[in-house]
UniProtKB/TrEMBL annotation:
Organism: Marinobacter halophilus
Root EC class: hydrolase
Lineage, top ranks: Bacteria, Pseudomonadati, Pseudomonadota, Gammaproteobacteria, Pseudomonadales
Protein name (record): Aminopyrimidine aminohydrolase
Gene Ontology BP, a term: thiamine diphosphate biosynthetic process
Reaction catalysed by this enzyme: thiamine + H2O = 5-(2-hydroxyethyl)-4-methylthiazole + 4-amino-5-hydroxymethyl-2-methylpyrimidine + H(+); 4-amino-5-aminomethyl-2-methylpyrimidine + H2O = 4-amino-5-hydroxymethyl-2-methylpyrimidine + NH4(+)
Length: 222
């Protein structure tokens, strides 16, 4: 039977659930997250997004066909034109200037995750790289949808984190997430069980690094 993206999630169910339903996410949803934790996360996420934009540029470099190149461009555009732009204005609203962002040191969780993805992409092929990128692109879209279906989630002005949820439930982000899933489904359909095992390891590692990123925000780790 051809593999699908859902099979990767299924193979890493415990890690995927721990990522999507993390304490940081729950507290964002009900508005109880400490502002310092959110600001720490926001700053590190700016650094994270710059490295992830580089990883999509690597995907463009590794693309053998026009359709692969277009998919890499979509990912790069979603980060640079949608997420980073919104992120900078969102940081400003939270009292974090662009100058401060430009001079931040990277936390260990940021270093570990971003360099893992770049290294996986350098050593492996285009599919390894997209699988390593997928918890980022697919996970946040899924988190926004999970929060929206959760009774404890507060939407609107009474939740200071409402704009964050809105960013990831936006059509632009949800469309980019669906395009990534479609691209992966087409490629995963052809892989052998042994190759799927290898890719599962990459997906699990990247998902665990997403969990560490939430932990870093929650505990203000550097
Ligand atoms: C750590 C992290 N992971 C995923 C995303 C969503 N692109 C993000 N902004 N930051």
């Amino acid at each position: 039977m051809p593999y699908q993206f859902e099979d990767l999630k299924h193979a890493c169910q415990a890690e995927w659930q721990a990522y999507i339903e993390h304490g940081f996410v729950r507290q964002l949803g009900d508005g109880s997250l400490a502002p310092e934790a959110f600001q720490h996360y926001l700053k590190q996420d700016y650094l994270f997004l710059i490295q992830f934009a580089r990883a999509y540029a690597l995907a463009a470099y590794k693309s053998p066909t026009l359709s692969d190149l277009r998919q890499a461009k979509e990912g790069l555009q979603a980060i640079v034109d949608v997420e980073l732009d919104l992120h900078i204005s969102y940081c400003n609203a939270w009292g974090i200037s662009e100058e401060e962002l430009a001079n931040l040191p990277e936390a260990r969780a940021t270093l570990a995750y971003t360099r893992y993805v770049l290294d996986t992409g350098n050593r492996g092929d285009l599919l390894d790289l997209h699988v390593a990128l997928s918890p980022c692109m697919v996970g946040y879209g899924e988190i926004a949808n999970w929060l929206n279906n959760r009774a404890q989630t507060i939407r609107g002005d009474s939740n200071p984190y409402d704009a964050w949820i809105a960013m990831y439930e936006s059509d632009e982000f949800q469309d980019a997430m669906q395009a990534e899933i479609r691209w992966l489904n087409e490629r995963l359909g052809d892989v052998s069980p042994t190759r799927f095992e290898q890719l599962t390891r990459v997906f699990r590692d990247a998902t665990r690094l997403e969990i560490d990123f939430w932990d870093m925000g929650l505990h203000l780790s550097d």
